[in-house]
Task: structure prediction
Amino acid sequence: MNWNETLRNNVTRAQELKTYMRLTSQEEEHMTRILEQFPMTVTRYYLSLIDWNNPEQDPVFRMSIPSIRETDLSGDFDTSGEADNTVLPGLQHKYRQTALILSTHRCAMYCRHCFRKRLVGISGGETAGNVDQMAAYIASHPEITNVLISGGDSFLNSNQTIRRYLEAFSSISHLDLIRFGTRTPVVLPMRIYDDPELLDILARYTKIKQIYVVTQFNHSNELTPQAVKAIRCLMDAGVIVKNQTVLLKGINDDAGSLGTLLKNLTRYGVIPYYIFQCRPVTGVQNNFQAPMARAYAVTEEAKSLQNGLGKTFRYVLSHETGKIEILGPSGGRWLFKYHQAKAPEDQGRLFSVALRPDQCWLSGEDVRGVSREGADGPGETAA
Result:
């Protein structure tokens, strides 16, 4: 069975979950209503990782199966300002050196914490159009040194489409590397290890421009022998594999779970890249966001359990103004630093915030350094 046939066997309806778990008629009705707004698709492989004797405490279950908490529609559908950064259909240019492509709205599994919940599995209206037009834009902007092909899931594109992207971008002299954002090693690893054509394409083009795969393992339960096999196949093809984890309440917001994940990633040659603060996305915010102060303590304790390579990640939030690193508490306030910035004048800028204990995100006032009433100390920023 090829990977497309495997996907056709995905679980997409509440009724199909009855094979795995008990659902009352009311629970099925609630879930069906949720799916009208936020669809579900889960590979049978990923479902096999769930402890069905205790599903609601299982991290894989919580990341893949709809919850009544998704009916809380507080938050925003575009927390990173993607609409404002779009320069061509499906092409974003937020950071000076990086072009980001929304190559598809499809994924092998729709993560319940997805920050592109507005489009994944719903609409291809924001996804990429003409590859030649995008290549021409990138070629005309020599400041762009890398392209991130994302989605949806970039490896849900056909091999022909993946080859087309690589062909178009490999000839652009000022590009140093090409990245693919994909969770297929996590949720559909056979897409990689059962597809020699894909591996041949990657092996051929990584000799021209270094190819990186940035994946997202969020819990060590996802690092199965099949997932490791997929990682090894990518590495054997000359691809560099990195991981970015989303810190998720009830999934990995304890030092033991997060520390074990980071340790196992480095064991298999995957260097942790970022740990992201979960974004305040509609249908996600009150389900998965953990307060930043507590999450920082978790990441620091998890970091203390690692060797040097496992300590290289940055704990960041992907704000509409840039990628902001959470540096930690100092003198009664919290320090933050722009690791990447949309505005050139913000690049590398330090600022401090009087963080509330329950605060999960930064407001516009926070990042501008505007002091809250009653906050200790000045709100000015430091260069």
Summary: The two ends are 56 Å apart (CA to CA). The CA atoms of residues 262 and 310 lie 6 Å apart. Residues 25-37 form the longest helix (13 residues). The chain has three domains: 3-71, 82-314, 321-383.
